Known about the structure:
Shape: globular
Number of strands: 17
Largest sheet: 9 strands, mixed
Strand content: 15-25%
Radius of gyration: 21 Å
Number of helices: 11
CATH topology of the largest domain: DHBP synthase
Strand order of the largest sheet: 2-3-7-4-6-5-9-10-11
Number of domains: 2
Amino acid sequence: MISTDRTAAVELLRRGEIVTLPTETVYGLAADALNPMAVAKIFEAKERPRFDPLIVHLPSRDWLEKIVDPMPPNRQLILRLADKFWPGPLTMVLPKRGIIPEIVTAGLDMVAVRISAHPIFAEIIHLFGKPLAAPSANRFGRVSPTAAEHVLDELDGRISLVIDAGPTHHGLESTIVSVRANGIEILRRGPITAERLSEFAEVNTVASPARRISAPGQFPSHYAPKTQLRLIDCAESFFAEKDQRVGLLAWNPRSRKGDLQIGQRRTGNRRSLKFSAVRHLSERQDLREAATNLFRYLRELDALGLDLIVAERVPGQGLGAAILDRLERASRG
Length: 333
């Protein structure tokens, strides 16, 4: 059920149930992070492997040292990052205390934590009064939800309540970092870019998803639509197979007419490339707008029964690196 009843959400959480809540990144499937039975329902609803840890959302900064054990000499860096980016889409992976159940961290001795900037999420977690585990509210490995309707597309019948707050702001999951004595390691790219983090310490970005899962969002195949997705440099150089219905997730500027039929010449024979559907990530080539639209447009194209979705690469700098990360992993699905 889609609703705006915050009180009902809090009551369900207190009873150990799972509810879907909006965050500034994507919609999250929330449960009491200190209740192992409640957390288990997240894994069941999402069909998520138990060895993939969850992010814990804190009600306030006061909870940080209740559930994590910041170790000197990186304590000051942790606090500086929290001062700058919390509330907001930055998740830090830190040594955990025993209060956090093993199921939350997949048996690891580290826990991923953040504070959401979404006002409705903040209101509900404040009323609840305890941390919430809240991964994206979709089936494991699929496209993350950026609207309440997307959640029902994935999880209808598995959850009792979805709190609707309209489209999410960022459209990409939070940046995840490991804070070390000698700097910051980015484990998952997101809205907080390496360029912004480099103002605080030396930054090392994990080049590809890890073989050993140490934080949420590290699977090599993730965020995938059901339709096969292929990354390309530009639509003009792509040729469809005969009778193949292809959708285009576009980045490069082109005319509307050219989107749907682009004449090409190959081996002396003129071929017509026709896209059955086109979605432009950003007409202005604005990376923030592209990030907001990414998952929504993937879902729209996926719903059309196409044979293939092709996505043009975006620039790999700044927020573009996070968008490319999602597209590359979606293409492996």
